[in-house]
């Protein structure tokens, strides 16, 4: 079987740059951009007619996105991003004074901040479970189980960690929480298109972004709510759908918003289908493996040994120059962009700093080879 060719022609990415950070903000295919532009032009041509058409169009889009996730459409709502989904979940569950919210040390920063806000407001406690990069599923479950007790209001856990590209055993963790009567909230920001049926793992709440690996327009994400929580789950903005008894429709109408992104999102799913996505995803995993090895060799470091790495992301340790701080990291990324014309991202875990490499259909091995050639002299 021949290897699928890279398809940068399907995107409008600047060819003068090497784009190796799809995992942060995604990249919207040309076809979806064109549809998005048509929808926005239609809205501006006749705003009244546009907003009359929005409910029916949103329903059609939402059903396609739910089918892509293989989840019950009655429990699937659209939200701007996974952070909004986590916040909606935390707004729904009881968090008694003296209880605790449990996270791992892989948690996304904004999710950690959300947990801290709700813990402070409810006089609850944050408990962070240390999970090593090399921990297998048994070790992850054992570490989490050790801190769950009658005081635990919820477990908030990544499905694929943003910081470490590590896949967590969500099905087992959700089952553990159910057995203990503890709510489970899954941050599946990176899961759509990287995992099949990511929302079917039995969690009370699951949320994931379509703007990452499905390459949908930004501010498009889903929130999946277990049946017992649907009546109580409300959008973060009070609007005209406040008293709609149906969960999806309750989240649809959020005032005068730009709904074009949500309506255009299924076009990106059709682009993935044309790209033979399941096969391509497997080939991209091989590509990012090789790219990470090439970069690590050039840096004199190593590829992080993550027990269950995500299909299209890898961590390459960086001998980071100078102070290890968010400001220093941002300055370094800006320098790489400006001087090397390469877009990368850095992540930190414990005391280590990594380049988190991504691979999507527009990438080729040459992209990683260029970074491996250009980056060492900068260090």
Automatic annotation (TrEMBL):
InterPro entries: Aminotrans_V_dom, PyrdxlP-dep_Trfase, PyrdxlP-dep_Trfase_major, PyrdxlP-dep_Trfase_small. One of its GO terms (molecular function) is transaminase activity. The keyword Transferase applies. Residues 58-370 form the Aminotransferase class V domain. Keywords: Aminotransferase, Pyridoxal phosphate, Transferase. Pfam families: Aminotran_5 (PF00266). Transmembrane segments: none annotated. PANTHER family: HERCYNYLCYSTEINE SULFOXIDE LYASE, L-CYSTEINE DESULFHYDRASE. This is Aminotransferase class V-fold PLP-dependent enzyme. It comes from Kribbella ginsengisoli.
């Amino acid at each position: 079987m021949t290897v699928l060719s890279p398809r940068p022609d399907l995107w409008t990415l600047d060819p003068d740059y090497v784009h190796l950070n799809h995992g942060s903000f995604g990249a919207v295919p040309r076809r979806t951009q064109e549809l998005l532009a048509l929808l926005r032009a239609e809205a501006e041509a006749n705003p009244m007619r546009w907003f009359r058409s929005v409910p029916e169009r949103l329903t059609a889009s939402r059903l396609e996105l739910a089918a892509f996730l293989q989840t019950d459409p009655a429990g699937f709502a659209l939200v701007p991003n996974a952070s909004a989904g986590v916040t909606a979940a935390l707004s729904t569950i009881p968090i008694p004074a003296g209880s605790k919210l449990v996270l791992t040390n892989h948690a996304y920063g904004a999710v950690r901040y959300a947990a801290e806000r709700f813990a402070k407001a409810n006089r609850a406690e944050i408990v962070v479970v240390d999970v090593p990069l090399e921990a297998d599923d048994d070790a992850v479950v054992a570490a989490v189980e050790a801190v769950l007790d009658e005081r635990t209001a919820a477990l908030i856990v990544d499905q694929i960690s943003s910081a470490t590209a590590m896949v967590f055993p969500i099905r087992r963790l959700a089952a553990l929480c159910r057995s203990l009567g503890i709510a489970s909230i899954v941050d599946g920001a990176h899961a759509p298109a990287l995992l099949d049926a990511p929302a079917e793992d039995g969690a009370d709440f699951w949320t994931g972004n379509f703007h990452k690996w499905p390459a949908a327009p930004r501010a498009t994400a889903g929130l999946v709510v277990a049946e017992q929580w649907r009546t109580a789950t409300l959008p973060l903005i009070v609007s005209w759908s406040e008293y709609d008894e149906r969960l999806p429709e309750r989240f649809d109408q959020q005032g005068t918003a730009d709904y074009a992104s949500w309506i255009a999102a299924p076009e990106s799913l059709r682009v993935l289908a044309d790209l033979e996505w399941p096969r391509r995803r497997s080939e991209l995993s091989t590509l990012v493996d090789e790219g990470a090895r090439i970069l690590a060799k050039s840096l004199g470091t190593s590829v992080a040994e993550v027990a269950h790495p995500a299909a299209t992301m890898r961590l390459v340790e960086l001998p980071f120059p100078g102070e290890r701080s968010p400001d220093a990291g941002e300055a370094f990324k800006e320098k790489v962009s400006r001087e090397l014309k390469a877009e990368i991202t850095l992540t930190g875990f414990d005391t280590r700093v990594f380049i988190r490499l991504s691979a999507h259909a527009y990438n080729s091995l040459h992209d990683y080879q260029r970074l491996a050639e250009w980056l060492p002299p900068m260090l």
